Description:
Layout: H1 6-11, E1 21-25, E2 28-32, H2 39-57, H3 62-70, H4 88-103
Amino acid sequence: MIALPLGVLADSGFKDGQLIQVTVEDGTIILNSGEQGSTGDNLDGLVAQIHMKALDLFEGDEAARDRWMRSPIRALGWKSPDQMLQSVEDIETLCLVIGRLDRGSFP
């Protein structure tokens, strides 16, 4: 895991809660919002990140993650997480929801 100071992210133009793809090449950290380049490639990477975050949320229980991914969620406007994997914006929303669930910060 790479921890970056919040100032670095803010200075780079990233928003709070935005998914960021981090790549290290030749000792250089490259931050990518996932909105540049081939949309299909970026979405595939972001979808994989969501599946990993959801698996972490369910402490490695793949069956629980898969059930949750197929279930309508109130915080997602009664869409399932699987239905939110079609655009970068929806994936960012889904990432925020997973983070809130992980922290227990839903009312």
